[in-house]
TrEMBL record:
Source organism (scientific name): Phytohabitans flavus
Membrane topology: Multi-pass membrane protein
Pfam families linked to this entry: MFS_1
Family under the similarity heading: Belongs to the major facilitator superfamily. EmrB family.
Compartment annotation: Cell membrane
Listed name of the protein: MFS transporter
Transmembrane segments: 50-67, 74-93, 99-120, 132-154, 160-178, 198-216, 222-245, 266-292, 298-321, 333-351, 357-376, 397-417, 429-448
Keyword annotations of the record: Cell membrane, Membrane, Transmembrane, Transmembrane helix, Transport
């Protein structure tokens, strides 16, 4: 890997880390914010929900804008929006202003997050896709774990405002480095006449956001898809069905997401595995803290440290598995990783309140290793099968389905725990769910593309009319 590519990867990952850390840091501050603004927990929770919905709704726009304006320019715009939102959130004067400014932050993150995938995939090329996706996996693995720890540390010694203000110097550094390092030709630019699919944007972004909101409401209300969750779920389903009809019929403009992508067996298998993997991963990260707090009575900060092995396992496995998948292909590595994750889930179904602490720690580490071993090769496989012109659309589909899987995982955990006869029974039920998810992953893995092949020919979709299989 040449020096410039290493710098490009480092700069892109620094910017990508901003959104992930800020999102997970703020999640632990709901109670603090409710007290600071003398409001309810549900109202304070919208500081996180608004951020998440803004991210989800912005991703489809990013899909179009990256080729219209260029990756470097859009990346810099995303950093400016995110930093502006961070400054404003740190200076918020009431809960309404904080929710609004967190939503602005979410717009910035909705630009940056999918661009991480797009810029890295295009910079690396098909033959190094697994290696680069593995490096990105370090951020994806550690972000959800380190965020709560960092948030707890900030709240223990500083005002809640610093959770947002600390992002400002990091964002400024990331902006300066990006101006110097990212090449102006980081993307394949579209002609100026290519029009935005406005109707598709109005259907797809809000549709996904509504479904994510429904799942978030289910988790918050401890009821699975009932009551307040049914309205946004129904609205989201109608919008997404409307988008599917629109995308298949549109002629005068290119759809934001070309549904013909799903005619590629390898692409469909990759995004399915990553969506289900996101579900299992976030179910684990949501259930483990509850186990430590209820069964062992640890505080928030200690609990954050105890779940760190799950992120550490993923951070170790993903770069190694990604690099190896570029040489031998994805299937064998992904199958081995899913098997390890399934075995770890089975072990967790035997853990009780009197289990020695070392066993859940080792189980979490093994779960992280397993998920990392199938995630990086799967992402690498996806980018080896996509024609270059479809990288932006493929990245958006991957990111949105992974977000959807995460939201569904949290909602399912809340439902399992609520309906269980006790905390330990519920905890074991969550990991039976994780085992079932790994069984599905194992069943889908044979559909991944085989050994690495030659890169797709630029413009293949345009000439053939279909993505490569």
């Amino acid at each position: 890997m040449d020096r410039h590519l290493r710098w490009t990867i480092a700069v892109v990952l620094l910017g990508g880390l901003l959104g992930i850390l800020n999102s997970t840091m703020a999640a632990v501050a709901t109670d603090t914010l409710a007290k600071a603004f003398d409001t309810s927990l549900s109202t304070a929770g919208w500081t996180s929900t608004g951020f998440l919905l803004a991210v989800t709704a912005t991703i489809p726009f990013t899909t179009w804008a990256v080729d219209r304006f260029g990756g470097k320019r859009l990346w810099l715009i995303g950093l400016v929006v995110f930093v502006a939102g961070s400054i404003a959130a740190g200076l918020a004067w009431n809960v309404g202003s904080l929710i609004a400014f967190r939503t602005l932050q979410g717009v910035g993150a909705g630009i940056l997050d999918p661009l991480v995938l797009i810029l890295l995939a295009r910079a690396a090329g098909p033959h190094r896709a697994g290696q680069v996706m593995g490096l990105m996996g370090v951020v994806l693995s550690l972000g959800p774990v380190l965020g709560p720890i960092a948030g707890g540390a900030v709240l223990a010694g500083l005002s809640w405002r610093w959770m947002f203000l600390l992002s400002v110097p990091v964002g400024v550094i990331a902006y300066g480095l990006a101006r110097r390092v990212l090449p102006n030709a980081a993307t394949t630019r579209q002609p100026a006449g290519v029009r935005l699919d406005v109707l598709g944007l109005a259907l797809l972004g809000p549709g996904f956001a509504a479904v994510v909101l429904a799942l978030s409401e289910s988790a918050e209300q401890n009821t699975f898809l009932a009551g307040p969750a049914l309205v946004p779920l129904t609205a989201g389903a109608v919008l997404l069905i409307g988008y599917a009809v629109h995308a298949l019929r549109v002629r005068r403009t290119a759809p934001l997401i070309d549904l013909r992508l799903f005619t590629s067996r390898g692409f469909t298998a990759s995004v399915t595995i990553m969506g289900i993997g996101g579900l299992a991963n976030f179910a684990t990260l949501f259930a483990l803290p509850l186990y430590y707090q209820h069964a062992h009575e640890y505080g928030v900060f200690a609990t954050g440290l105890l779940i760190a092995p799950a992120g550490l396992g993923g951070a170790i496995a993903m770069p190694l598995a990604g690099r190896l998948s570029d040489q031998i292909g994805a299937r064998g590595l992904a199958a081995a990783g899913a098997a390890v994750a399934a075995a770890s889930g089975l072990a967790f179904t035997r853990i009780g309140a009197d289990t020695a602490l070392i066993w859940p720690i080792l189980g979490a580490f093994a779960m992280g290793l397993g998920i990392g071993c199938f995630s990086a090769p799967t992402m690498g496989s996806l980018y080896r099968t996509l024609p270059p012109a479809m990288v932006a659309q493929g990245s958006s589909v991957l990111y949105m389905l992974n977000q959807l899987g995460a939201a569904l995982g949290v909602a399912l955990v809340a439902f399992v725990l609520q309906t269980a006869s006790g905390p330990i029974t519920g905890f074991r039920g969550v990991f039976w769910l994780a085992v079932a998810m790994m069984a599905i992953v194992l069943a889908v893995i044979p559909l991944l593309s085989g050994r690495p092949e030659k890169p797709a020919v630029p413009g293949e979709l345009a000439t053939s009319g279909r993505p490569s299989r």
